[in-house]
From TrEMBL:
Gene3D superfamilies: 2.30.30.910, 2.60.40.4070. Required for flagellar hook formation. May act as a scaffolding protein. Residues 111-182 form the FlgD/Vpr Ig-like domain. This is Basal-body rod modification protein FlgD. Keywords: Bacterial flagellum biogenesis, Cell projection, Cilium, Flagellum. Pfam families: FlgD (PF03963), FlgD_ig (PF13860), FLgD_tudor (PF13861). It comes from Azomonas agilis. Belongs to the FlgD family. InterPro entries: FlgD (IPR005648), FlgD/Vpr_Ig-like (IPR025965), FLgD_Tudor (IPR025963).
Length: 228
């Protein structure tokens, strides 16, 4: 908080000749609360008895001091809250590393030695729902037939095998779901599991970002389910 002094020739050096500023430069000096009050008292002690300090001006000076003091306290409180929030984010982020989450997307790292579970959202009932599976090169390897399904969330499983019954290698696979309704084939939204590799903490109140193995980055609000 800096002070700019009136350099005019007026000999009535009242407190009103001082203005508060949020920034300081080489040409100004710092005026704290104590100095402000000392100056105010000196002004009152040395005021012209024939032309005393105007009450309105006096109250305005006190209000100015109160406002600056309030802003300083508010800034201190906000800094404390931000520090506590960042600490909380760090602790929360540490607990997520290595855990499985469910997010919207089409890619997932699959351990083909185990059954893979995913889900899709079906806006309307359909007599034909299926999920095509593609390997990392984009080659189709299998189709999961789900048949007739009612509208809503539909779960599906993949055994890690191709259409010939051969177990495929572990790796990243793409799942594209489709259904026939309203007289045409429609793409569907899928939700797949992923493992949290690392966590990027949000800065200055921004949202935490989860870096998922083989998938990419998503914000915490995009996570549908946090597993074990």
């Amino acid at each position: 908080m800096s002070v700019v002094r009136n350099t005019g020739t007026n000999t009535d050096n009242s407190v009103s000749q001082y203005q508060f500023s949020e920034t300081a430069d080489a040409a100004t000096k710092e005026l704290g609360e104590t100095q402000f009050l000392e100056l105010l008292v000196a002004q009152l002690n040395n005021q012209n008895p024939l032309d005393p300090q105007d009450n309105t001006e006096f109250i305005a000076q006190l209000a100015q001091l109160s406002t600056v003091e309030g802003i300083n306290k508010l800034n201190t409180s906000l800094e404390s809250i931000l520090s506590d929030y960042q600490t909380s984010q760090a602790l929360r982020g540490a607990t997520l590393v290595g855990r499985s989450v469910i997010v919207e997307g089409s890619k997932a790292v699959v351990d083909t030695a185990k059954t893979f579970n995913g889900s899709l959202v079906l806006p309307a009932s359909s007599s034909k729902v299926f999920v095509d599976v593609y390997d990392a090169s984009g080659t189709p390897v299998d189709r999961i037939e789900l048949g007739e399904q009612a509208a809503g969330t539909v779960n599906f499983m993949w055994d890690g095998q191709d259409s010939s019954g051969n177990t495929l290698s572990p790796g990243t696979y793409t799942f594209k779901a489709q259904a026939t309704y309203d007289g045409e084939s429609q793409d569907l939204t899928t939700f797949l599991p992923a493992t949290v590799d690392t966590v990027t903490l949000g800065q200055n109140g921004s949202e935490m970002v989860l870096n998922l193995a083989g998938v990419g980055s998503v914000t915490l609000s995009q996570v549908q389910v946090i597993g074990q």
